[in-house]
Each structure stands twice: as structure tokens, then as C-alpha cells.
Amino acid sequence: MIQSAVTLNLIDSMHQGPWIYWHELEASFKKASDLGFDAVELFTQSGHQVDSDYILELLERYHLKIAAVGTGAGKVLQGLTLTDTNPEIRRSAIEYISEMIAFGAKFGAPAIIGSMQGNVSANRPREEAFAWLAEGLLELQNRAKAAGVFLIYEPLNRYESNLMNTLEAGSTFLKEHQLDGIRLLADLFHMNIEEENLAESLSSNAPFIGHVHFADSNRRPMGFGHTDMRPIAETLHQIGYSGYVSAEAFPYPNSDEAATQTIREFKKYFR
């Protein structure tokens, strides 16, 4: 059965971005639970920002799971990517993501590689960046396998990355490099920019999809933009998707109303 999730950013220095809940761990868990969400997707500064035992205690108290953990703070706060031309930065990126893999694995949750994939640098060959990316992802998927979880790779839109922008590009890359421990994140906001047909893309890349980000065309909660959600939901049911549909969206008009709108839309299509 498809599960619902809502995002929570716990980084005090950040105040803007596509996360529904912000900064308050227990209060956000309680709100998510009261609304009927199955899980929370966490965005933290590091794998040590919050005591794992405390999170486990809260998960039990509020009958929630951790859907996934984000790694974007490695890029936003430290400037780390897997395709940086500096090998020391690439190594630091791998170690940071490995820390987040270990953190997520404590809750049976995968880590997401989005912005930390980086970009092809100006005046450098694309093949170079893709080779570095493949090398880093191979090491990271093996660490994820050893921790008992899979790894998630997120194709981003062209304004955020010039590597892979569609599910097809992502699945082709995973097949070519035999990255069988990695699944794709189908982010509906990014897909609205890059995909010709969202439902068809989900269908043709079904074996590779491991996570879905639930946001409308304007990155507000679903229902506040012009995404036609019905064929997307029908396709997810048809392909037998049983992972999370997680609201990585702006807290519009505020966190509580955004969460309420999200769970309302989720139930409309998946319950």
C-alpha cells in the first residue's frame, strides 16, 4: 500500500525552502500523527544533529516511521558534491552522504541524493562528471547495502542540475553502471518541468522508482497548482508502487494548512 509522508527541516539556520514543517521535532511529529500521516521525511544538518534514540522514542509514541533522510545540507551548508573537480571535496561528499546513510538506516530509511550530485563544471567534459558520479554512487550504494537500506537518486530539473533531468536519463544511467542498490526519486515538481508526460514516464521507468515527492507544479502542496494528479495516481497504482508519497513542498500558506491540504489530497488519490 502506498504510504504518506510529510517533510520536516530541522536546520535552525534555514528558513526558506520546500519543506512543510520546520525546526520543531516533537511538535511536528505530533501534528503529522494527528493528521494521519504514515511517516516523516527528515532534513537535518548532519547524522548527529538529533539523538537517534530520541527519534525512535518519538516514532513509537506517535506511531510514525521515517520515510527517508535528505542529504542536501552537505551542498547547501558545506558546498559538497559528488562531481566537484576537487577530489578532496568529492571524498568529503561521499563521507557526508555515508554518515546520512548510517543515520537513516537506524530507522530503516534510505538517504536521498539530490543537490549533492552537483553539476558538470564549465569548460569540462561531461564524461568526466558522469564518471565521478558513477564512482561515488557505486561506493555509496555498497555502503547502503551493508547498512540494510537502498539509496535514492533524484533527477533534478535543468535549473538545478545539468546532469540527469528525467526519470529515463536516471534509469539509463543506473542500468549502464549496474547500480542495482539505487532507486529513483520521482519528484512531481521537477517532472512537471522536464517530462513530456508524467504518467507515461512513471510507467516506463516503474522498476526503478523508489520514492515520490508530492508537490504541485508551483511547488506548493498538491491541489494548489495545475498538475493533473489523477493519471499520475492511477499509474502509481497500476505499476504496483508501494513506497512513500512525500510532501516536499513549500509551506503555503503556512505549515499547518499545507500539511492539511497534503493529507487531504493524498487520501483523495491513494485511500
UniProtKB/TrEMBL annotation:
GO MF entry, a single one: isomerase activity
Q: Cite the Xylose isomerase-like TIM barrel domain residue spans from the record.
A: 29-267
Which Pfam families does this UniProt record tie to the protein?
AP_endonuc_2
- Keywords in alphabetical order, please: Isomerase
Gene3D superfamilies (alphabetical): Divalent-metal-dependent TIM barrel enzymes (3.20.20.150)
Q: Does the keyword section mention Transcription?
A: no
Task: Please give the name of this protein.
Answer: Sugar phosphate isomerase
Q: What organism does the UniProt record list as the source? A: Algoriphagus sanaruensis
